[in-house]
Amino acid sequence: MKYDVIVVGCGPGGSIAAKTAAENGLKTIVFERGQNPGEKNASGVGLTPKIWRDFPEIMKEMNLPSQRVARRCTAHLCDEKGEIIAELSWTPSKLNTYKEAREFMTVMVYRHQYDKWLSTFAVNAGAELKTSTLITDVLRDDKGRVIGVVDEKGNKYEGIVIAADGALSVIANKAGIRPKFGPYETTLVVNYDFEAPADKIDDIIGDNALHTWFSPLYPAVYHFFKKDGFHIGLGQWFGAIKKNLRTYLEACIKSPPVAKLIKQLNAKPREFHAHQLPWLQYPGKTYAYNVMLVGDAAGFPCPLEAEGIWHAMYSGRLAALNAKDAIDNNDVSEEQMKKYEDAWVNSPLGEEFSAGKEFQEFWAGLPFNTEKIGEFNEIVNDSLNLFTGATSHLEMSQLFLKNLREKGPSILPLFRKYLMPYIARVLEEELSDFAPLTNVLEKMLPKKKVRRRN
Amino acid sequence: MLVPFEKVIHKLEGDQGDFIKVNQENCVACKKCLIVCPVNLWYMKDGKANIRENYKDICLECGSCWQVCDYNAIIFTYPKGGTGVIFRRG
């Protein structure tokens, strides 16, 4: 069967690719291995404002039963028993460059609903949706070039291939783009969904719907509230997994503050998930002859917070536009496919990776490092204690700085190594070291007690 | 409080096919698959990795076993279209 465009996978990237291709007059088919789009989803932290900025005509129509708007984030810094020692909470900054980003942080939905809804835009634009169909291989011509795909029953489909088939992309593998991601290029994410009465979540959580937990007990945990339930989960790079990640997650769920919140919400476990989430410093090659990779298949989740839905949708559109260009030029060569890669590199998507190395190393070095995060949490708490009066302010400052000097050697190198290069990259300035600040702190330590009045 | 994870894993109806295969000749007993599998599907027998006979009941199709195997001892493909795990609240 011949098509102009074959989209493999009907997640957010696949749906937008198929919609865009069909709108541009291309004969388009999109394959989904589930019985419905969204059944095999790889979860997701929520929908970020960028989706509203870049897909306004779609998003203005969204009204899904599970959606909950998050207008506040809260980070819980915990000790080795999982007890909260300090908390930080924040709201959208007025510095954001567009309206939606100033109004909310994310909209939480269940992907099972979102993906299915999004696929209707592809179908309404004229794309053919073929569900319950697993694509198992690429189709090659007698010169060995990829000209389409083959399904599990041996049916052959010819056309430009847009691979939106996730982290374990069959197309990326079979087309020879990569065998698999490396040990520090993809993470395993384990996640429990809990159900809870919507009115209880409204009362106790409201729009403070984006929680994170940091403790030496577990690598950083996300805790995101939907309308009538929540996700609680964590991830780690395969190269750093030393024991079953589910045991860390269950330690967090059983930790006193989380267990208390679960009890208050009368929440019950409803579903257990595991999936791979690519988390790269920079994506690898995203095209081959007649093939383009989008979304997770391309390794696009943001290297700062691993959000990937906008990235999938944005890259899906760019790939479909290049497919249109390829059809118009009657050219599916590597050179023509590379135009897609050039397009995303020079777009807001490419910008996401401008400090990808620094972002990725920071997460690996601190929030996902159970040996370091406890000391960091204590230092944050100590610094906030400078503003309480239990111990005299001068003495507390001295104790803090003394403690910082003692603990500093294990924590400050992480900042020097990971955070400062990022700040330098953002500012496009040379911040050669964190040392100037630590030097200042050390100089602030009084040499001897000074009685100002006398 | 926490129910066993097996009780909150949901599957579509239908024959999934044999989507995980073990080539034991290649297994070097590194046990990475045992450590990584979030639903404990792997065990050692006679110095080789084995997958539980009923793995299709709870496998979440994350492909972690395939991802960590550096010796091509684990062959992972997806279940047949329209079968396998369903994430209704994913």
* Helical residue percent band of chain B: 10-25%
Main β-sheet of chain B: number of strands, strand sense, barrel status? 2 strands, antiparallel
Show unreliable segments of chain B.
none
- What amount of the residues of chain B lies in strands? 15-25%
What is the CATH class name of the largest domain in chain A?
A: Alpha Beta
Tell me about the largest β-sheet of chain A.
Answer: 8 strands, mixed
Average pLDDT confidence of chain A is 92
Q: What is the CATH architecture descriptor of chain B? A: 2-Layer Sandwich
Mean pLDDT of chain B: 96
Q: Tell me the greatest interface.
A: A-B, 54 and 36 residues
Given helix and strand content, the structural type of chain B is: alpha+beta
Radius of gyration of chain A: 24 Å
- Structural class, from secondary structure content of chain A? alpha/beta
Q: How many separate structural domains of chain B?
A: 1
Q: Find the CATH topology of the largest domain in chain A.
A: FAD/NAD(P)-binding domain
CATH superfamily of the largest domain in chain A: FAD/NAD(P)-binding domain
